[in-house]
User: Fold this.
Amino acid sequence: QVQLVESGGGLVQVGGSLRLSCAASGRTSSSYNMGWFRQAPGKEREFVSALHWSGGITTYADSVKGRFTISRDNAKNTVDLQMNKLKPEDTAVYYCAAAPSNRPWNPRDSRAYDYWGQGTQVTVSS
Assistant:
């Protein structure tokens, strides 16, 4: 089992940057496929980005491709999401999630993830 805690959210202006971090405790994050999702008010939770447990495969939603970068810091046991060129439509609660690496995985499907963090708010002001 793994516990996930997100941090790094906040208020930023359009065009600015934020770096979210997901700290994993229990088992190391390298044993899991990791994902970031977000949920804006009144909308369903949507996929943002994912990282294969090997660290070699990344996946991005079209809406964030070229602006967001997912990475793993093995020393800190975190999975980070660097967000650049932020837009008002990026405003949402961002969630980190973990999927066991020993079974088939669709990175874009929230049902593939067993563990979730509590979320961190990102607000982009225009």
In short: The chain is about 0% helix and 50% strand. The first strand starts at residue 2 and ends at 7. The mean pLDDT is 94.
